[in-house]
Amino acid sequence: MNTHASTDRIERQILLQAPRNKVWHALVDAESFGDWFGVNLKGERFIAGETARGHITYPGYEHLVCEMQIERIEPERRFSYRWHPYAVDPAADYTQEPTTLVEFELEDAADGILLRLVESGFDRIPLERRAEAYRMNSGGWDEQMQNIRNYLAKR
User: Fold this and answer.
1) Domain boundaries, the chain
2) Quick one: 69 exposed, middle or buried, by C-beta within 10 A (0-12, 13-18, 19+)?
3) Mean pLDDT, range 41-62, rounded to an integer
4) Max CA-CA distance within the chain?
5) 9-153 CATH fold
6) pLDDT tens-digit profile of 72-96?
7) 67 pLDDT more than 60
8) 78-90: buried (b, 16+ CB within 10 Å) or exposed (e) per residue?
9) Could you give the angle at which helices 30-37 and 20-28 cross, rounded to 10 degrees?
10) How confident is the model at residue 3 (pLDDT cuts 50, 70, 90)?
11) Closest CA to 118 of 100, 93, 136
């Protein structure tokens, strides 16, 4: 059994007390996703094979644009996209860098829906920013799991 922590992937899960269709809508309806995730995706749609983009609404990061290349949408089961992790330097050109893959998966649980998140591909990020991208996204996903729980609780 592999006991050392992976540097390539971040894994989180959270039990959500909400119906599957409500959790699914919060994930794949671009505007709803943006509301809890902190990106202005008004007028955007998540379509497999296309890119969705919007300004980050998180205080201090509003000048940045979040771009997500939508990979897969398997209704009420799995949603995934690629992006450049922690791409926060407006002067940097991240377009030639590899992306990480963000995957959300829904699973029925006894008292709600288990939302699993995996972001993988960090080992391919340039060494000079790999550790910070991993650290910042790791903390970011801790926060985002609470954000989606709070978002669903208000609806």
Assistant:
1) 9-153
2) middle
3) 96
4) 48
5) Alpha-D-Glucose-1,6-Bisphosphate; Chain A, domain 4 (3.30.530)
6) 999 999 999 999 999 999 899 999 9
7) yes
8) ebbbbbbbbbbee
9) 90
10) very low
11) 100
Joined together, the tokens standing for residue 54 give: 């919007």
- Owner of token pair 């910070």: 132
Q: CA-CA distance, 137 to 66, in Å (whole number)?
A: 14
Residue 102: CB atoms within 10 Å: 21
Q: Is the pTM of this model over 0.85?
A: yes
CA angle 112, 12, 34 (to 5 degrees): 80
CA 78 to chain centre: 12
The DSSP element (H or E) to which 145 belongs, if any, is helix 127-153
Residue 116: count of CB within 10 angstroms of its CB = 14
> Read out DSSP for 35-72?
HHHTB--TT----TTSEEEEEB-STT-TT-EEEEEEEE
Count of CB atoms within 10 A of residue 150's CB? 10
Residue 1 or 58, more confident: 58
pLDDT band, residue 4 (cuts 50/70/90): low
